[in-house]
């Protein structure tokens, strides 16, 4: 017997106090928003339909795993000689000592191929929330939108990109040390910060450096039994199987 549960509806009065999210009324912004119950009804049906379509359309295929690196997240807590620490604290003062914690620049990738050996999708896992352009008051994928655009430019328009944010406590895409130098490099490159992050992630996924293959290998091979598509990870080609000897499984 299945139990039926409903989502908890947090009240504006305790939202900010209990860390349950930002209440628009609490920051002096009035926006036309859908009632929570209406949105749940709106979204639940569509989510269920999407899951059903995906399940019924599943096919045999193959997967491959890879690991790369890209500087996306930065620790956001500044530590000072006085012993205090502050989120997004000023790092240009004489009292600044160091950034408080760890940064994780790993990019984990799970790639999928169809039975013809064509790359169909990638799950990309990065330890950084997507919040470069904050306070937009609009629905946005932030740097993941730019990353999808860049990956599809390199690997094909039909590529499905599923982004994941891994454990990213106190990680932020906002640069805390060397801001002026970072801004100068963005101007020279003619990119926004979101576009720069997209290039870094795409380089990690495809094994390229600024659009050039690191080892001379290309993303799409395909002769003598090798896979029709390959994702190059950190200079090594992850093929996972060959057409000659792999038995396709569900």
Report on the structure:
By secondary structure, this protein is α+β, with helices and mostly antiparallel strands. It has two domains: 12-54, no CATH class; 60-238, no CATH class. The chain contains five helices and 13 strands. The protein has a four-stranded mixed β-sheet with strand order 1-6-7-8. Strands 4-3-5 form a three-stranded antiparallel β-sheet, with no helix packed on it. Helix 3 crosses helix 5 (193-206). The radius of gyration is 22 Å and the shape is globular.
Task: Please bin the fraction of helical residues.
Answer: 25-40%
Given as residue ranges, the uncertain stretches (5+ residues, pLDDT < 50) are 13-21, 211-230, 232-250
What percent of residues are in strands?
15-25%
List the secondary-structure elements in sequence, H or E: HHEEEEEEEHEEHHEEEE
SS-derived structural category: alpha+beta
Spatial strand order of the main sheet: 1-6-7-8
Task: Tell me the total number of β-strands.
Answer: 13
Describe the sheet with the most strands: 4 strands, mixed
Shape: globular
Count of discrete domains = 2
Number of helices: 5
The average pLDDT is 79
Rg over CA atoms, rounded to whole Å, is 22 Å
The end-to-end distance, rounded to whole angstroms, is 29 Å
């Amino acid at each position: 017997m299945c139990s039926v549960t409903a989502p908890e509806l947090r009240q504006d009065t305790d939202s900010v106090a209990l860390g349950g999210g930002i209440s628009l009324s609490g920051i002096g912004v009035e926006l036309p928003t859908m009632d929570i119950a209406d949105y749940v009804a709106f979204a639940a049906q569509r989510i269920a339909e999407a899951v059903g379509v995906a399940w019924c359309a599943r096919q045999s295929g193959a997967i491959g795993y890879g690991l790369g690196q890209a500087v996306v997240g930065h620790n956001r807590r500044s530590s000072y000689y006085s012993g205090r620490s502050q989120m997004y604290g000023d790092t240009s003062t004489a009292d600044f000592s160091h950034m408080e914690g760890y940064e994780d620049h790993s990019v984990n990738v799970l790639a999928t191929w169809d039975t013809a050996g064509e790359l169909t999708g990638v799950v990309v896992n990065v330890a950084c929330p997507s919040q470069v352009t904050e306070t937009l008051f609009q629905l946005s994928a932030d740097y993941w939108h730019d990353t999808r655009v860049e990956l599809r430019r390199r690997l094909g328009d039909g590529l499905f990109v599923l982004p994941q944010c891994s454990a990213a406590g106190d990680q932020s895409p906002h640069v805390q040390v060397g801001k002026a130098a970072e801004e100068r490099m963005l101007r020279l490159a003619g990119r926004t910060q979101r576009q720069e992050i997209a290039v870094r992630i795409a380089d990690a996924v495809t094994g390229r450096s600024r659009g050039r293959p690191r080892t001379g290998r290309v993303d799409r091979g395909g002769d003598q039994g090798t896979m029709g598509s390959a994702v190059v990870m950190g200079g090594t080609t992850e093929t996972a199987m060959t057409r000659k000897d792999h038995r396709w499984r569900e």
